[in-house]
Structures are given as structure tokens and as C-alpha cells.
Design goal:
heterodimer, A: alpha/beta, 8-stranded parallel barrel, globular, B: alpha/beta, 4-stranded parallel sheet, 3-stranded antiparallel sheet
Chain lengths: ~270, ~220
């Protein structure tokens, strides 16, 4: 299991990485995930398996990631620190590694108050930055957060989530730098709506110290209303941005749009 | 201080169902300050419950007594006399969660009811407005954040900066609340100490909090 993941390699080689997010399934039949994988296989270097996105419960990111692997696609397993403490996170990470999942997106996750289980007790034993550091510790030092050694070839490619579209970009940049220094090898953004504003933010990031930055993948959100056309326009605008390492296409509850957009754009 | 809110009258009526004579006990401590369980609040509530019960055709005798604090066994002893003479079928405490438990410990043969929802440790923001400020985590790191506590005041308890949901300076979970990370960041910037926020804050040791079970502090220099 040593060596770079496909995503890691693509980013390292400066290829424009095309990533997309698979459907969530509130059930036990992951056929929608496998079907999706089959349709995006040729165009998407990796597919994100979200972790109860929007704080809405669905089949686990790990299950989706394994389903993606089975369908011949490299997964990016999101691990939010909202629902599980460090013990469960470490345990799931080792389990994921054992099952062949190696790209991990470390996030804080949407707060339960905004999801479909607002009465649930939030966890947040650790935050996304600390979890990224623990993933790095397992990967590089072969050690759990408590110092105990980890067997096997466990090596993970960790990433983080950033939001360029905020009132205080300086404050968020501070958090971005911490994620990179904690071990994030790629950064996924919140959906881009204004490519110009995004381009300006990207320039700021590229000017940071090399130790404080890593490849940035811009997210594009497709909606039923906007359809494929709106998505394509946005993707083309992003492709023109200097310094952008790739795009991640999201289409919550209308993932059917994604294969069409991928085939037209790439 | 500890901040709480009186339970809704409907819930209280359910609690006192079946009792004809109860003792309502207030507290002059924290709950008095937040207008939830002090002597005035006891008087108002006792009156409301008597009226409600009269309307139901089930009148109730509610005697009122307010202790200096209900978190001190010494003060709970003041209930001894009234309890001997009173013939009360239950005690309704309007103190924070400590009160009912200390009263229950002292009076093993009487049902003890809690009339307050104890909410949080906090302070006064303005008259009539209290906000949660401390979560008693047992390992205070507020000093590392300019004196502000992200463990409590960040809805996600993040120690390393704002989440992606902090878009316009308000909290993703509670849009009525300012994102505390904005306050922390601005304060550090103001004090020329942004560098203190650069290093990763380590994962918290929750074993010092309630997570490890109810805590106890024993001061050997003070025990007999």
C-alpha cells in the first residue's frame, strides 16, 4: 500500500485533477454509488465519499469508499470530526487503510443543528486540524495519537476543506496554513460562484510560503435549476485560472448531471 | 455564575400531580441573579401553581422558603424544622441541579423535584440576557486565545481557527451568535499577537472534564 495515490500523483505531476462527489444513500443498497462510479470512471481521477454531508445521515463514507473501490474508482473518504471521537476516527482510518482507502478529506463538518438529527450530541473531540495531524502521525510515524505503534503499510494522503468566500479571508487563511502544516496535501474549497473573486483569493494563497500551501482544488456546485450548462461555464472559467490544481464537482441529489458535465468539459 | 430557567408551568404541574402540600425552596445564589429561582421567583411561581391547581379543582398548599444557597449542606439544615412540622409530601427545588440533589441527600424519605432547567455557566450580557461562557472543561486554555474560550463559545469547540461555515462572522449553528473566532482573531491582531495563533493547538485532554465521570476537588490544606 506504499506509494502515491492516483490523486496524489496527478497533483504532484501538475495534471488538472478532476474529482467529483458520489451520491449519498440513506439506505443499505449502494447501487447508486456503483452506477455513478461506472459513469465517471474514465474522467474523474478520484471520487469523494462524503461523511454525513450537511449533517444528514446516510450510509457511511467508509462503505461508499469501499463500494467505489469495488467499482474501479479511487475514493477520497471524508472524515468529519463532528460525529466520532479520536478513538473511532483512528479505528475507522485503520479499517479504511486495511480496505484500500487512502485519500482522506479531514473536515469539521456541518454542525448537527443544521442537519436532520439536531438532537444528536455533537462530538468534536478533535478538530479538523488536529485530526489531520493525527492522520499524518499514523502515515509517517506509524503511530496513533497516543504514541502506540501502528502495523501495516498504513499511508494516507490527507486533505482539508477551505472557504475562500468569507468576510474575513485573513482569518481563514490562518486556518488554511495550519491545515497544511498539520499535513494536508490538498485543499478542497467551498463551491465557487464568482470565479474572479476566487482567482484573487487563489493568488493570495500561491504567494504564501511553500510550507504553508498545497494544491487547491476548486469546487463547482451543480443544481437541478442551473443544470449542466451553468456548471460547464463555471468549470471553463476555473480551468483558465492560473495555479488551480483541479476541480471537484458536487451535485447533491442530482448527481446524474455529473457524468454529462464531465464528458463535455474534459 | 450558573444560569438556569424555570421549567414551563405545564411541566411543573405534571411534576406536582398527586401532591396536596409541598415546600418550594428557592436559592439566593446564582439562580437569584438570573431571576429564575430566587425568593421573588418562588413567590411568583407558587402563586401561578396555586391558581392553576385551583382551576383544576385540585387545590394545593405551597409553602415557600429561600435558602442562602442550596449547594451547602449547612444551609440545607435550615429545612429540618419546617420539614418536621410541615407534613410536606414533596419538596420542589428552584435551585440549579445541585439543589435538588443536596436536598434529596438530607431528606431520604421525601420526593424531591427539580423546578429549574439548569442551562450553563455564564454571565450577564445585558439586563435580562445571559450567555454561556464557560463549559467547565477542567483544563482552561482561554489564556491561549486572548482570554476568550473557543471550547465553549465556538459551537464546534474548534481550537485552530474558524470552520468553513463562518462566512459572514456569524456562527453556522447559531446565526444569532457572533463567530467567536472572529473575536479571538481580532483581539490577537489588536494586541499584535497573531503569532500566538499560528502554532497548532493540541487536542484537548477531555479526561479532565465530565467525560471521565463526575469530578471532585479535595484540598488537603483545607480538609480536617
Amino acid at each position: 500500500m506504499s506509494g502515491q495515490t492516483k490523486l496524489e500523483k496527478a497533483l504532484a505531476q501538475g495534471q488538472f485533477a478532476v474529482v467529483c462527489q458520489c451520491p449519498s444513500v440513506r439506505g443499505t443498497d449502494l447501487a447508486p454509488v456503483r452506477d455513478f462510479a461506472a459513469k465517471v470512471q474514465g474522467k474523474s481521477v478520484a471520487v469523494v465519499a462524503a461523511d454525513n454531508p450537511g449533517a444528514k445521515v446516510g450510509a457511511s463514507a467508509l462503505a461508499k469508499a469501499v463500494a467505489l473501490l469495488g467499482a474501479g474508482v479511487e475514493p477520497v473518504m471524508e472524515m468529519s470530526t463532528r460525529d466520532r471521537n479520536r478513538m473511532a476516527l483512528e479505528s475507522d482510518l485503520l479499517g479504511a487503510g486495511a480496505l484500500g482507502v487512502r485519500n482522506v478529506l479531514c473536515t469539521d463538518g456541518t454542525h448537527p443543528a443544521k442537519g436532520d438529527h439536531p438532537q444528536a450530541r455533537r462530538v468534536y473531540d478533535v478538530d479538523a486540524v488536529q485530526w489531520t495531524a493525527f492522520v499524518k502521525k499514523i502515515s509517517q510515524e506509524k503511530s496513533l495519537s497516543n504514541g502506540l505503534s501502528v502495523s501495516g503499510d498504513a499511508g494516507f494522503f490527507a486533505g482539508g476543506l477551505v472557504n475562500p468566500f468569507v468576510k474575513s479571508p485573513e482569518m481563514h487563511l490562518m486556518a488554511l496554513k495550519k491545515k497544511v502544516r498539520a499535513g494536508a496535501g490538498f485543499l478542497l474549497t467551498e463551491p465557487v460562484q464568482d470565479p474572479k473573486r476566487f482567482g484573487e483569493w487563489l493568488e493570495t494563497v500561491k504567494k504564501l510560503d511553500p510550507a504553508d500551501q498545497c494544491p487547491v482544488i476548486g469546487a463547482v456546485l451543480l443544481t437541478q435549476e442551473g443544470g449542466a450548462k451553468a456548471g460547464l461555464d463555471l468549470i471553463r472559467a476555473l480551468q483558465a485560472l492560473k495555479g488551480l490544481a483541479g476541480v471537484c464537482i458536487l451535485a447533491p441529489e442530482c448527481e446524474d448531471l455529473i457524468p454529462e458535465v464531465l464528458n463535455q468539459a474534459f | 455564575m450558573i444560569v438556569g430557567e424555570r421549567k414551563p408551568v405545564r411541566e411543573l404541574l405534571d411534576l406536582i400531580e398527586g401532591y396536596d402540600k409541598i415546600l418550594m425552596v428557592g436559592c439566593k445564589g446564582c439562580v437569584s441573579v438570573c431571576n429564575a429561582g430566587g425568593s421573588k421567583d418562588v413567590a411568583i411561581l407558587a402563586s401561578a401553581l396555586r391558581i392553576a391547581r385551583r382551576k383544576q379543582g385540585k387545590p394545593i398548599v405551597i409553602d415557600e422558603l429561600t435558602l442562602d444557597r442550596q449547594c451547602e449542606p449547612e444551609f440545607i439544615e435550615w429545612l429540618d424544622e419546617p420539614m418536621k412540622k410541615g407534613g410536606y409530601q414533596a419538596i420542589l427545588s428552584l435551585a440549579c441541579g445541585v439543589g435538588p440533589q443536596y436536598i434529596a441527600e438530607a431528606f431520604q424519605d421525601v420526593p424531591v423535584l427539580a423546578g429549574l432547567n439548569t442551562s450553563f455557566i455564564g454571565g450577564t450580557e445585558a439586563h435580562g440576557i445571559w450567555a454561556e461562557t464557560c463549559s467547565a472543561c477542567g483544563d482552561c486554555v482561554a489564556g491561549a486565545f486572548g482570554g476568550l474560550c473557543p471550547v465553549t463559545r465556538c459551537a464546534k469547540g474548534l481550537l485552530n481557527g474558524p470552520c468553513s461555515g463562518s462566512v459572514d462572522g456569524t456562527c453556522e449553528a447559531n446565526p444569532d451568535t457572533e463567530c467567536v473566532w472572529v473575536k479571538i482573531y481580532e483581539r490577537a491582531k489588536n494586541l499584535g499577537r497573531l503569532d500566538t495563533l499560528e502554532k497548532m493547538a493540541l487536542a484537548k485532554d477531555w479526561s479532565k472534564s465530565l467525560s471521565a465521570g463526575p469530578r471532585k476537588i479535595i484540598r488537603k490544606d483545607l480538609t480536617t
